[in-house]
């Protein structure tokens, strides 16, 4: 139950945010909101001992829709705990940071915190849910809150564009993921992840297994901005910087990684999973780091860097999945499990150093008014603390000791080297690409890390490019990045602090079967290993390339070139826009006749087809009532009068002919033993004809229908079709009675229960009295409408509009 | 008898539909009127006609004609009266305000 409370707390607190905002006009609402992540963080920290040393997972379930196997089931294991700590911990820092970043006077902070809390609750729901459908719901809720947060400054074009883009891509992926979940349910018979893992042997050979995996991966790849779906992340940087730090680097984009890690026990044994996850991860790593170097906007550099780092973690998860393959040697299993440990460790490290960097960039933006690298420089002396924080975080990201990024980068190299031993597609040489790509991407990573620090803080100070002189940020704004930066150093020096408490329980959740084979031990010094030489190479080549950047920058004009994925996205969107406009324009013509034709054609098609299929007229010999001469005459007159209406030359004739039909119908009612109907019909017909004549005294003369022959023929064809269908239906239903009528009840009881002898009247005013009451209401509304229409005189003000229409 | 009524209902629907598809508001209004007559005949036919005395208990008959469809039709007559009269006044007012009763001219703008 406490788990449910933890997930629901942020969601419920959103209700109070606007109230607090109104009630305390002096207080920055952020202070009140801050309590939520802090309380949750403390709660989750208290859960750490329970998960250490092979502690069992906590779970709690509330039945929701038992018939569909959907229950609000939450499970807290090592992996969930790691994510929950990131969500609440970084969340607390981000809220603290936002208090000084967003001013109460200028921004709609109450909306901001509502969205932020919405996200926090949704994200906690994602990482704690055991039921796939519930997970999907929370997953889409994170996309939705991300949309709202990116579009926070909704008056900017770019914000709306970025918000829409992220929404379209992640929700489309999420939808694919839902399909994957349903396939898993079809195979495994349950939506519970734990039960799926337990029953894996029963369905892992199923034909739907790989399609389900591909669909789930599509969801993960879009959410975690993997190549080629990465294009939404740079545009998402239009969000306020605290949001970028929180959603688009530390938590939400890691939901895809979480999903891959969470589903690893299900899919990891499959070779496709290994190649796809590690391959896409490496491609993203390389492409992201390559693109990051050419950006001129600081936040864009960080966006591409985030893409690249997400790719790194993704590829590690892919490499590590080899541990679950059949027939692995004991030491190989341990080595691949090490890759998963590296992924989880880097996930944590990335949240710390990238969070710091985003907050630093936010400070720079806040103080100088720009994030453009071409206008920045030399801020070192003006903002020494900020510079120090940026230095620590960037060097950690670049993989330089003694920071935590160095440790996980070394472990990444270990994993890549290990993967090189695998034979890819049966050809051993291919897998050598793993360490090569890893190394090349690390060089680019090193370069953009240097760009972030030195282009901003070193070099010449360009006072003329800035609107006002920048100075150091207020203390409150420096605290959150300082906390994260100190984590970068502390974890770098004492990795054992997190290895046993966070990484190992999480690893046990990702590789439940292989967890015993590997114990997470992270140390700074391994001796003169290949990994260390690779790092030295990265630093040496990186420095050389950074210094010579302007000589080789020209390649960026060549390689991404004209064909970027953004163009594909924009093009698709345009095609969709125009296509739907064209298509809608084709059939939504604004002509009543066309719409009626659709309805009638559909009716003829559907009913006619069904009747043909069911062969309704065949079989059965219904007993018909006898036919008398009067009836034939009456029906003949009805038909003739009706047929004459379209041919009538004047409106008077047409109205009178219609009236004639009505009167003969009432005579027919007499013959058919329905006296009440006959009376009513006579009165109504008289009033209608009078009304028609009154109205049409004012209407134009009936013109001859000036329409081309095909128009008339088409109308006639549809009319005959409708007539035939109706006749057939009438014949079918009058010929066959499938069950007894309820009328016997009315006949028997009308005097007993209602004391009336006229059954029709009794039904109307007694048995179905409410029907009649509502009918009277309909008539009342109609008469009000008629009165209003007759009285209606468009005033002069509205008359202008009238003229326009002419 | 039923067959004849079925055909009559079908004819009323045919003519009504043809009128509804026309351009002039007057024809459309008359068309709805005819279709509702067709519906009434259809409802009555469904229950089977002339199966006994009129549904009045004073008749002391052995069997009565089904009263339920009659009740439904009674409701329908009144409602369709309301709808038709509203429609007519609407047509009248539209003509007064817009100067045309041609549906093709009353259609919405292309960019709406």
UniProtKB/TrEMBL annotation, chain B:
The chain crosses the membrane at residues 71-95. It is found in: Cell membrane. Keywords: Cell membrane, Membrane, Transmembrane, Transmembrane helix. GO terms for cellular component: plasma membrane. The keyword Cell membrane applies. Pfam families: Oxidored_q2. It is a multi-pass membrane protein. Signal peptide: none annotated. InterPro entries: CPA3_antiporter_subunitC (IPR050601), NUOK/Mnh_C1-like (IPR039428). Belongs to the CPA3 antiporters (TC 2.A.63) subunit C family. This is Na(+)/H(+) antiporter subunit C. The lineage of its organism: Bacteria, Bacillati, Bacillota, Bacilli, Bacillales.
């Amino acid at each position: 139950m406490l788990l449910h409370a933890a997930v629901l707390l942020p969601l419920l607190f959103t209700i109070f945010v606007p109230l607090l905002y109104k009630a305390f006009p002096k207080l920055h609402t952020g202070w009140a909101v801050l309590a939520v992540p802090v309380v949750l963080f403390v709660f989750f920290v208290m859960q750490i001992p329970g998960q250490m040393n092979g502690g069992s997972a906590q779970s709690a379930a509330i039945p929701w829709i038992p018939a569909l196997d959907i229950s609000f089931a939450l499970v807290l294991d090592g992996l969930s705990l790691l994510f929950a700590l990131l969500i609440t911990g970084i969340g607390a820092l981000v809220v603290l940071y936002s208090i000084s970043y967003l001013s109460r006077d200028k921004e709609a902070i109450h909306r901001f915190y509502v969205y932020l809390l919405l996200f926090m609750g949704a994200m906690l729901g994602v990482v704690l849910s055991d039921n796939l459908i519930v997970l999907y719901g929370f997953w889409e809720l994170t996309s939705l809150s991300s949309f709202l947060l990116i579009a926070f400054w909704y008056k900017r074009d770019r914000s709306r564009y970025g918000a829409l883009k992220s929404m379209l891509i992640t929700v489309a992926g999420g939808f694919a993921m839902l399909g994957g979940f349903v396939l898993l349910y079809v195979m495994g018979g349950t939506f519970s992840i734990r039960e799926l893992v337990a029953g894996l042997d029963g369905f892992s050979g199923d034909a739907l297994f790989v399609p389900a995996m591909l669909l789930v991966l599509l969801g993960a790849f879009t959410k975690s901005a993997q190549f080629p779906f990465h294009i939404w992340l740079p545009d998402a940087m239009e969000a306020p910087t605290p949001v970028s730090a929180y959603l688009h680097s530390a938590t939400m984009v890691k939901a895809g990684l979480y999903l891959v890690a969470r589903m690893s026990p299900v899919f990891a044994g499959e070779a496709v999973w290994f190649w796809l996850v590690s391959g896409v991860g490496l491609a993203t790593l390389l492409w992201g780091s390559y693109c990051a170097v050419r950006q001129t906007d600081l936040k864009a550099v960080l966006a591409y860097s985030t893409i690249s780092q997400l790719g790194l973690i993704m590829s590690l998860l892919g490499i590590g999945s080899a541990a679950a393959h059949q027939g692995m040697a004991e030491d190989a299993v341990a080595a691949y499990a090490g890759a998963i440990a590296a992924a989880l460790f880097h996930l944590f490290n990335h949240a710390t150093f990238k969070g710091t960097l985003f907050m630093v960039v936010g400070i720079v933006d806040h103080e100088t008014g720009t994030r453009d690298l071409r206008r920045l420089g030399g801020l070192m002396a003006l903002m020494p603390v900020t510079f120090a924080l940026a230095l620590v975080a960037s060097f950690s990201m670049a993989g330089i000791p003694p920071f935590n990024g160095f440790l996980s980068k070394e472990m990444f190299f270990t994993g890549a080297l290990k993967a090189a031993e695998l034979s890819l597609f049966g050809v051993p040489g291919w897998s050598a690409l793993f360490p090569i790509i890893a190394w090349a991407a690390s060089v680019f990573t090193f370069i953009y890390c240097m760009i972030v620090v030195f282009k901003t803080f070193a070099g010449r100070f360009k006072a003329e490019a800035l609107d006002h002189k920048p100075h150091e940020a207020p203390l409150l704004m420096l605290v959150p990045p300082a906390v994260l930066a100190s984590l970068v150093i502390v974890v770098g020096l004492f990795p054992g602090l997190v290895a046993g408490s966070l990484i190992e329980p999480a690893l046990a959740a990702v590789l439940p079967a292989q967890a015993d084979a590997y114990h997470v031990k992270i140390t700074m010094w391994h001796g003169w290993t290949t990994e260390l030489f690779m790092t030295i190479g990265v630093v040496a080549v990186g420095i050389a390339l950074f210094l010579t950047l302007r000589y080789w920058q020209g390649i960026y004009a060549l390689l991404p070139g004209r064909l970027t994925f953004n163009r594909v996205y924009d093009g698709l969107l345009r095609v969709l826009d125009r296509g739907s406009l064209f298509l809608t324009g084709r059939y939504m013509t604004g002509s009543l006749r066309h719409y009626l034709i659709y309805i009638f054609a559909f009716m003829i098609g559907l009913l006619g087809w069904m009747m043909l299929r069911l062969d309704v007229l065949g079989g059965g010999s219904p007993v018909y009532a006898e036919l008398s001469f009067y009836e034939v005459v009456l029906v003949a007159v009805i038909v003739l009068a009706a047929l004459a209406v379209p041919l009538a030359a004047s409106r008077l004739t047409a109205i009178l002919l219609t009236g004639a039909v009505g009167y003969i119908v009432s005579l027919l009612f007499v013959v058919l033993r329905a006296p009440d109907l006959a009376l009513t019909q006579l009165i109504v017909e008289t009033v209608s004809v009078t009304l028609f004549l009154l109205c049409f005294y004012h209407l134009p003369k009936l013109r001859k229908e000036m329409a081309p022959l095909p128009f008339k023929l088409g109308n006639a064809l549809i009319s005959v079709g409708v007539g035939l269908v109706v006749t057939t239906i009438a014949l079918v239903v009058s010929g066959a009675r499938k069950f007894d009528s309820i009328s016997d009840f009315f006949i028997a009881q009308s005097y007993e229960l209602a004391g009336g002898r006229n059954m029709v009247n009794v039904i109307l005013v007694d048995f179905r009295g409410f029907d009649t009451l509502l009918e009277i209401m309909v008539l009342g509304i109609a008469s009000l409408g008629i009165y209003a229409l007759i009285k209606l005189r468009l005033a002069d003000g509205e008359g202008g509009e009238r003229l326009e229409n002419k | 008898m039923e067959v004849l009524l079925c055909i009559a209902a079908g004819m009323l629907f045919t003519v009504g539909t043809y009128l509804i598809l026309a351009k002039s508001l007057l024809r459309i209004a008359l068309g709805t009127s005819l279709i509702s007559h067709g519906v009434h005949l259809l409802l009555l036919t469904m229950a089977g006609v002339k199966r006994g005395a009129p549904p009045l208990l004073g008749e002391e008959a052995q069997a009565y004609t089904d009263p339920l469809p009659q009740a439904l039709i009674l409701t329908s007559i009144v409602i369709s009266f309301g709808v038709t009269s509203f429609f007519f006044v609407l047509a009248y007012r539209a003509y007064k305000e817009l100067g045309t009763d041609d549906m093709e001219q009353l259609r919405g703008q292309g960019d709406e």
